[in-house]
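Protocol step 4 of 6: record predicted structures for both targets in the notebook before any analysis. Target 1:
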Amino acid sequence: MDTGEAKQGLYNSLRELGLSEAEISLYSASLTLGPVSISEIAQYVKISRPNVYKIIAGLERHGLTKFTQQSRYSRKFSVESPIVVLEKLREKREKMSRLDHDLVSTLPDLLTMYHQKESDTKIKVIQGKEQYLKIYNEIIEQAEKEIQYFGSAEDFVNFISPAAEASWIKRRVKKGINIKALLLPSETAATFSLTDMAELRETKTLKGVWPFTSSFELFSNKVIIWQPKAPLAILIEDKFIVEMLRSIFEKFWEMAD
């Protein structure tokens, strides 16, 4: 990694920790200078001493500063090592991971409490493979002209099984329901595209996005969000949410191959 990449990596890490542009600039300058007086760092970065003190106070709140053990007027200022930045970044990510896990585990209870005024919103939480398959098969009974699917077909099909997917496709074709499948690149996506015409499907692959395992499926005035790893699915009947996701789908559909 060259110097430019190293600096960019440090900048991105400090931004993720919540530092301001001024705090990042002062941290980077101090990293190069080593222990110096406030006057010296102010002169180096061309910022007045009162403003430098304010920026240092911000760095102190992030735990990224240190002073030599001298009197107040002669002590030297420096910043913590980039190793400390890495440790704090890992601590933040671990905390976010724990919060994410806690939210996912309580999501079913939270959704049962949810009520959207001035609408006929209905939300149903589905858990377990048996319930997955039941609600998945009900799509064919409730869908009208077209179904729209966006996400990872690989993870979804591997969860419900290729046999269950093949049976679902056969029933959908028999009923004459078309589907637009906007998929992440995978072997499953490539296989689907080979049989599009026979299976009343139009498949596109969305490249250049960070891979994910979830997906959503739009039909009638409803959407199902599939999360096969938990496993968890959320059925939402809300015209505003459906309109938003349909708009997102159409935009990505235009961008895909």
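Target 2:
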Amino acid sequence: MERQTRRASEAAARSSSQERAFLVGVEYHQRRVKTSKAEDEGITSSARMARDSVQAASEAAKASRQPQFTAEESLAELRELAESAGASVVGEVLQRRDKPDPATIIGKGKMEELEGAASSARADVILFDHDLSPSQQRNLENGLSARVIDRTQLILDIFARHARTREGQLQVELAQLEYMLPRLAGHGIEMSQLGGGIGTRGPGETQLETDRRKIYRRIRHIKEQIENVRRTRRQQRQRRESVPVSTVALVGYTNAGKSTLFNALTKAGVVASSRMFATLDPTIRSVTLPSRRKVLLSDTVGFIRNLPHTLVSAFRATLEEVERAALVVHVSDATSPIRTEQDAQVEKVLRELEAEKKPRLRVINKVDLLPAAEREPLRDEGNAIYVSALRGEGLKKVLERIDAMLEEDPLSEVRLRVPQADGKTLALLEAGARIYSRKYRDGMVEMEAQVSESLLRKVEKFASKPRKGTTGAQSKKLADS
């Protein structure tokens, strides 16, 4: 009770100042499975060599398929998360073990060493770069003189800080409650259902059971509200889909520069920050492509390694924009030394969303921060474009490539003869078509233009010899001519 009172007073004092965080990372060495001497003697040397080569090939294939973060890279990411949560990192330690300790993940000896280091650094909170079980978290807090938070709880705290809309706040609260539920535990005789003597008989329902019942009730209520949000989103999406306007979703690892790119393309003014998870609430804005077609660009929450499943589930309503998008623009950070690993994590989340087969455009951002020697040889190739969203470099290419890759509402090259007196049709073409040539003859306007299928249906009576399917490089060639 005294410890709980002291922690509560410390938390109140810290609310007005920056918390001091001590980071803990643990790396596990994968031991190779050894066979017994008897088993080794029972097979021939050639069979043993074949077995070893198969194991080595399997391990190499697994490593090549799934790029891994090193322990140092993972700890550096935890440092960024801590700073995004408003903490000041005052120390860190990395332990290498063969396997996690079931009780404390780091072992009793390391815990004593950690207590001394954290106390010397006057740390308020100790952040673990791993998910802790409820019992491990309790054991660590009992052995250390500071609060203990695991990686999932830290990410949830950042999400709670950055959620602005009611929808975002509901989704974060749902994830927090689902995380908290298995961690409820009673302490002391006041939590017992039936005591063993006079004055110790508890109520018919324990406080723990009451808390769980309240949380379950709150979870049901939040899920109903989120379902209402999803229903509203579906209605909005159906209204949008009744008009042929495609949605393009920006996805990528957190802090890859998605919001900066979104602002550069749409002039939306969305908050862009170098801190992780600065964007939680989805934003959709209209963008006009070079062909004069309009698309809806959607800015989404950033992905991260081992994104807690509760968050993926809670943010399903937000991430539906990715599931329904006609094109996914994957934004990567050109300056990140672990870009390959980050891209692999994005692909993993896209598979969870069943969006991995959608048309994909790769945009490698922040090239302005690269040294000149690294930047010079970079060339756009395939569906990959190098840009600097902050300086506006390469944005025209991004819009042109989106224009060329969209399959919905396809483009056609047509000749049109419109009466000069038909100002409404001429204005419609001026606003929605790419006009290559225009001649005035006998009270008619003769033009060659590139129009979308939806616009062509409105002006079809003025068209002659439509030629469909000309987009991308062909359109550019016609425009230049």
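Step 5 preliminary note on target 2. The mean pLDDT is 77. Residues 207-242 form the longest helix (36 residues).
Proceed to step 6 after PI sign-off.
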